[in-house]
Structures are given as structure tokens and as C-alpha cells.
Amino acid sequence: MPEDLTTQRYKVSSKLCMVQNLGVNGTLFGGNMMAWVDEAAAIFAHEHTGERYMVTLKFGEFEFHHPVREGDIIHFFCLNPRIGRTSCSFEIEAITTHGTVVVKTSAVFVCVDQHGRPKPIHK
Question: pTM here?
């Protein structure tokens, strides 16, 4: 996974906020942002560990710092990854193209076997 060397963050993915993503206030529905963060975090956990089965264990508090409007592009960055015996933890940020932080949280993913039981990470 490429690393953004100017900020020491790993860029994972991006999303475009479209009409179908908006809530009643005309801004991004919070549940959509949470799903986008989970998807980006899962991509990072898989790529960073090289493991096929990484599942979400938990996220930290989701605090929405800035509204997202139709047409905004959101970029997802992961920072400070730590790999344990069976888990991978890191911070994740959602940032607009203009550099505005939308959400910051932490994530923990667990490596599991094909039966869903925790297993050691081989990296």
C-alpha cells in the first residue's frame, strides 16, 4: 500500500458524496460515513497484514467534525498501525479534498480463520 510521505499517512480510498448519500438536512447521512470508514479500515487491515480474513472488532468514538455535502470528495487515511498477535489497530481519518477533517476514529481488526476463530497474523 503506498504511503503518503509528506504526512506519514497511508491513503486507502476515496468516496464521492452523491445525492443518494444525503440525509434530510442535505448533508451526508452519518451512517453512510460510518460504513465508508469501516470499508476503508477493512481494506487497510487486509493489505497491511496480508491476511485474507480480517474482521472488525471495534471502532473508537465517531465524532463528526464537519458536514459533507453533495459533490464533496472524501479521502480516507490510516495512521500508526500496530500489529499484535491476532489483531491490527490503527487510527483512521476522513478528510475532504480541501484538507478539512470530517471524522477521526480508531479501529481494531482481528485475523480469523475460515471458521471465524481468531488466528495469529503471519506478518
Answer: 0.90
